[in-house]
């Protein structure tokens, strides 16, 4: 490690210990070396004994910066895994991170606008931030040109060096995972870390976020399920984003939603539908759907509509991954474990020499006890965890392209369970996936593909005779080339055989001449002629090999 990385690692350990987070280490025999290491090498005391554990965890992650805050945001959605006193504190990382100076934010806005005063473009600019998160913070204003209320998002100053320093350290630690863990290579830690780093760096480019928001808004235009605020792209730059200000109830405020008369069951189901629509219909999904980025419209509480913001992280899947993923989900729903095992092999997620029967049995062993519970009590997160543990036996590799999808699925499940604990995620998702699969392989899919390709075919139709002629000519030339190569190979084979025969004869003559020269020196010229003949035959054989 470089001195800078060592200092950063020491700072991370110091921060965790100064907040007393070593309390999170379970007291088990397997953790004994870690606890002894903490007592002997890192004797720093807990400097925040007056605070609860959840608050200390939040403050530590906040102090360490955006990489750790993002991790805390992900943990905050898993209320089924953490007690309320920890989950509630982690939820504050979604939009209540300590802000930076509003005057500095104003200066950055003016710099992004070409060193022009904010008052030139905006009225009622509020120097106090409306919300503050790990990467950026938001200020409110009103556009001068049309009087519309907007929010202005500004990147935190000097944040890139912090992210790069942490990611460089994480990269270095990831290289040690295959050496420290028996199945570390299967986890593909370097690919996963690279994917996570890419998403973080992409979040720093607000022009990318503006484009993502415009795309997502177009995908759900006039949809009763999801509304995406309008982006004013003329005012946007790499460090600044201007978009429509929205008013809604935070998705995490369950009490206010219930007081407003919101149909909580429909709201939870629509969250699942929005996720699967983005993944399978559009192949373009919001991959940062933590509660701080989701609101519910005040209008029509009986027919609730989500409002989604912060499109800095989006994901997509290729056609093959979507198909395999949908079929895997349906096979799980139907308890068709043989199909699940075959799909994993076909997709390349496990090695091709995997014993399908053994893999099927292992999956059944894991899943059958889970399915004994009511479907509403089954957690996707627990299923994924159990399958992950089972996959170690079959060398299943982590798929980096699915990491964002898995994270988003956990977000959606966490939010859905919080809104409506009786949510049957499986029942809600299965009809959607079955319909999507049917559309992909049925007659309507064939007709749709023909309609999409028809303009291209019509354009190429006049060129068809020429293309056929060229193809036949190329085939003839290729056949001629193949025949020529075959003849050359045959000739070379014959020449190689001849050269080996000549080498053998030459070696025999040279050996015979040498023996005669030693044993019968009185034969005078005979041994010399034999040796000379052998050398000549060797030379001829050598020329045959050229």
UniProtKB/TrEMBL annotation:
Pathway: Cofactor biosynthesis; ubiquinone biosynthesis [regulation]
SUPFAM superfamilies linked to this entry: Protein kinase-like (PK-like)
Main location group: membrane
Keywords: ATP-binding, Cell inner membrane, Cell membrane, Kinase, Membrane, Nucleotide-binding, Transferase, Transmembrane, Transmembrane helix, Ubiquinone, Ubiquinone biosynthesis
Upper classification of the organism: Bacteria, Pseudomonadati, Pseudomonadota, Gammaproteobacteria, Enterobacterales
Positions with a binding annotation for ATP: 130-138, 153
Designated name of the protein: Probable protein kinase UbiB
InterPro entries (alphabetical): ABC1_dom (IPR004147), Kinase-like_dom_sf (IPR011009), UbiB (IPR010232), UbiB_bact (IPR045308), UbiB_kinase (IPR050154)
A Pfam match: ABC1
Entry keyword annotation includes Membrane: yes
GO terms classed as biological process: regulation of ubiquinone biosynthetic process; ubiquinone biosynthetic process
Occurrences of domain ABC1 atypical kinase-like (ranges): 93-344
Source organism of the structure: Superficieibacter electus
Domain of life: Bacteria
NCBIfam families: PRK04750.1 (NF003404), UbiB (TIGR01982)
Annotated transmembrane regions: 525-542
């Amino acid at each position: 490690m470089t001195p800078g990385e060592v200092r950063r690692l020491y700072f991370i350990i110091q921060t965790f210990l100064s907040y007393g987070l070593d309390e999170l280490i379970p007291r088990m025999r397997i953790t004994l070396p870690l606890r002894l290491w903490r007592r002997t090498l890192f004797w720093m005391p807990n400097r925040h004994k007056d605070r609860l554990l959840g608050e200390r965890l939040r403050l530590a992650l906040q102090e360490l910066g955006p990489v750790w805050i993002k991790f805390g945001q992900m943990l905050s959605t898993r209320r089924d895994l953490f007690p309320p006193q920890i989950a509630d504190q982690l939820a504050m990382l979604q939009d209540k991170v300590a802000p930076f100076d509003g005057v500095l934010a104003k200066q950055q806005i003016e710099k992004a606008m070409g060193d022009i005063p904010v008052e030139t473009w905006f009225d009622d600019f509020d120097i106090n931030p409306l919300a503050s998160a790990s990467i950026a913070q938001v200020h409110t204003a009103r556009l001068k040109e049309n009087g519309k209320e907007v929010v202005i998002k500004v990147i935190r100053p000097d944040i890139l060096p912090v992210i790069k320093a942490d990611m460089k350290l994480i990269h270095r630690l990831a290289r040690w995972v295959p050496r420290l863990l028996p199945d570390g290579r299967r986890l593909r830690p370097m690919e996963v870390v690279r994917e996570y780093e890419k998403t973080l760096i992409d979040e720093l480019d607000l022009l990318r976020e503006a484009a993502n928001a415009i795309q997502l808004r177009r995908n759900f235009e006039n949809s009763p399920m999801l509304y995406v605020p309008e982006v004013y792209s003329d005012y946007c730059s790499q460090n600044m984003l201007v978009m429509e200000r929205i008013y809604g109830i935070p998705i995490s405020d369950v009490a206010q939603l219930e007081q407003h008369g919101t149909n909580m069951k429909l709201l939870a189901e629509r969250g699942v539908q929005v996720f699967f629509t983005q993944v399978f219909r559009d192949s373009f999904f919001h991959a940062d759907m933590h509660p701080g980025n989701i609101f519910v419209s005040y209008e029509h509480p009986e027919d609730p509509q989500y409002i989604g913001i912060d499109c800095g992280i989006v994901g997509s899947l290729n056609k093959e991954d979507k198909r395999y993923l949908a079929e895997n989900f349906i096979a799980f729903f139907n308890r068709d474990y043989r199909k699940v095992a075959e799909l994993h092999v076909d997709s390349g997620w496990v090695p091709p020499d995997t014993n399908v029967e053994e893999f099927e049995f292992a999956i059944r062993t894991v899943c059958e006890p889970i399915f004994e519970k009511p479907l509403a009590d089954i957690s996707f997160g627990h299923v994924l965890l159990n399958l992950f543990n089972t996959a170690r036996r079959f060398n299943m590799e982590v798929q980096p392209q699915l990491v964002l999808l898995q994270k988003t699925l956990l977000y959606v499940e966490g939010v859905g369970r919080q809104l409506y604990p009786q949510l049957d995620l499986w029942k809600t998702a299965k009809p959607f996936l079955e319909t999507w699969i049917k559309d992909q392989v049925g007659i309507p899919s064939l007709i749709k593909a023909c309609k999409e390709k028809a303009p291209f075919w019509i354009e190429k139709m006049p060129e068809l005779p020429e293309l056929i002629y060229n193809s036949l000519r190329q085939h003839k030339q290729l056949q001629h080339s193949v025949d020529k190569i075959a003849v050359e190979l045959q000739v070379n084979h014959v020449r190689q055989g001849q050269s080996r025969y000549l080498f053998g004869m030459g070696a025999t003559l040279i050996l015979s001449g040498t023996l005669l020269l030693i044993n019968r020196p009185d034969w005078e010229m005979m041994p010399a002629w034999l040796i000379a003949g052998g050398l000549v035959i060797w030379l001829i054989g050598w020329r045959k090999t050229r």
